[in-house]
UniProtKB/TrEMBL annotation:
SUPFAM superfamilies, alphabetized: Periplasmic binding protein-like II (SSF53850)
Organism encoding this protein: Haloprofundus marisrubri
Pfam families found in the cross-reference section: OpuAC
UniProt superkingdom: Archaea
Domain ABC-type glycine betaine transport system substrate-binding per the UniProt entry, residue ranges: 10-285
Protein's UniProt name: Glycine/betaine ABC transporter substrate-binding protein
Length: 289
């Protein structure tokens, strides 16, 4: 792609600390470096959601990738109401962040880094459970002896395991299910379920260990879990001063689907590749640089 005009000013691009966020951060940095006259400054790995949000709001950084669900539930003004339509949620946070914070969401990626219940493929074949509604039916039919692996936080949160039971109507069976739940860190769950030491576990939809262990993501057919689509979040001031930022970053998000991000995450988390190199390869493959 050709270089887009604009000032030669620096653009500070930050990210959160986990692999997926660093990859997204570097897609922005590399695209700006190759396709504009701007000078992107690497602030990836800055901190958590609120640290990045505060840094962007104060002008300490100019852009980072934020998830729509995080913007809606965690950052001011914070909402409790669930919006399960990805487009509606994106439009809501886009409008709200522009009006209240002077921050602009650019085009979002279609992948959804939300919580998922995932199951061992042999267990799925044996039981025919492919969605959370199927799981509820299976439980309500008296099957309460299967093994689960969840985090302590998921078990404690109102929107966690108890919330799933409420949404899918198997609350009455929670006590009977309790003895078969292992409390584990989320990083271990994929292997535990994959090796058959548990039948069902909690994971993140974009984790590369899902395909690695051939795990089956149970369809959340009642949309219990929130939507987390990422999009570049940039200050209005920076966009006004540097139109090339929008032109350069807008084409990236729509190119990243679930299979794509799992592959990119695998490159970093399992294959130990550098996030910058993974981002560069992706942009080249997609014709974005």
């Amino acid at each position: 792609m050709g270089v887009l005009g604009g000032s030669s000013s620096e653009i500070q691009v930050s990210s959160k600390r986990f692999a997926e966020q660093k990859i997204l951060g570097y897609t922005a940095i590399e695209a700006l470096k190759q396709n504009s006259e701007l000078n992107p400054v690497d602030e990836t790995g800055l901190g958590g959601s609120m640290q990045n949000f505060k840094a962007l709001s104060s002008g300490e950084v100019d852009a980072y990738w934020e998830y729509t669900g995080t913007a809606w539930y965690t950052e001011p003004p914070k909402h409790e109401k669930t919006i399960d339509d990805p487009k509606k949620l994106y439009q809501k946070v886009k409008q709200e962040f522009k009006q209240q914070h002077g921050l602009i969401f650019l085009n979002r990626a279609p992948f959804n880094n939300t919580f998922v219940l995932m199951a061992n493929p042999d267990w799925v074949e044996e039981t025919g459970v492919e969605s959370i509604s199927d799981l509820a039916e299976y439980i309500n039919s008296g099957n309460t002896d299967f093994r689960m692996a969840f985090t302590a936080e998921f078990l404690g949160r109102a929107d966690g395991w108890k919330g799933v039971a409420k949404t899918y109507n198997f609350e009455k069976a929670l006590e009977k299910l309790k003895p078969n739940i292992k409390q584990v860190g989320i990083g271990l769950t994929y292997q535990i379920v994959g090796k058959g030491d548990a039948d069902v576990g909690l994971g993140f939809n974009t984790n590369p260990n899902i395909p690695k262990y051939d795990l089956v993501v149970l369809q959340d057919d009642k949309s219990h879990f929130p939507v987390y689509n990422p999009a570049p979040l940039v200050s209005q001031k920076v966009l006004d001063e540097n139109p090339a930022v929008k032109q350069t970053l807008n084409p990236i998000g729509p190119k990243i689907g679930t299979d794509q991000i799992r592959k990119l995450n695998k490159n970093v988390s399992i294959d130990n590749m550098e996030p910058r190199k993974v981002a560069q390869n992706f942009l080249k493959e997609e014709g974005l640089i």
